[in-house]
């Protein structure tokens, strides 16, 4: 059985692959915005808009701007899930 973090990583990797036109293999927890050319400031905001839309969650500007890596996004998603329960 997959952990929630593993499932979130797979979901996020698929989303980022689609949005940034990169290979799935490029997306790992340690991936940062400097590893993906399309993950610039506008791409960052677009990514969070899509995450919010698809998951029905809202993030503060402080949360969004604090994210520097895929791992940061996964941690943020986990904290939002924990708030829900």
Provide the fold topology.
Blueprint: H1 4-20, H2 41-55, H3 61-66, H4 70-84
Brief sketch in words of this structure:
With 85 residues, the protein is an all-alpha fold. The chain has four helices and no strands.
What does this 3D model show about the protein?
The structure is a single chain. By secondary structure, the protein is mostly helical. The chain has one domain: ACP-like (Non-ribosomal Peptide Synthetase Peptidyl Carrier Protein, Chain A). Helix 1 packs across helix 4. The radius of gyration is 12 Å and the shape is globular. The two termini are 21 Å apart. The mean pLDDT is 91.
- Helix-strand string: HHHH
Structural class: mainly alpha
CATH architectural designation: Orthogonal Bundle
Spans of 5+ residues with little confidence (pLDDT < 50)? Answer: none
Q: Quick one: overall form?
A: globular
What's the story with the biggest beta sheet? Answer: none
| Strand segment count | 0
Q: Distance between the terminal alpha carbons, to the nearest Å? A: 21 Å
Q: Report the β-strand fraction as a percent range.
A: under 5%
Q: What name is given to the CATH topology? A: Non-ribosomal Peptide Synthetase Peptidyl Carrier Protein, Chain A
What's the level 1 CATH class? Mainly Alpha
Q: What is the number of helices? A: 4
**CATH homologous superfamily title:** ACP-like
- Mean of residue pLDDT? 91
What is the radius of gyration computed over CA atoms, rounded to a whole number of angstroms? 12 Å
Q: What number of structural domains do the residues give?
A: 1
Percent in helix: 55-70%
């Amino acid at each position: 059985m997959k952990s929630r973090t593993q499932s979130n990583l797979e979901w996020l990797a698929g989303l980022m692959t689609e949005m940034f036109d990169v290979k799935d293999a490029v997306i790992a927890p340690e991936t940062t915005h400097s590893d993906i050319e399309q993950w610039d400031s506008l791409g960052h905001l677009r990514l969070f808009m899509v995450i919010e839309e698809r998951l029905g969650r809202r993030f503060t500007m402080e949360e969004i701007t604090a994210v520097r890596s895929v791992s940061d996004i996964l941690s943020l998603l986990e904290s939002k899930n924990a708030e829900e329960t």
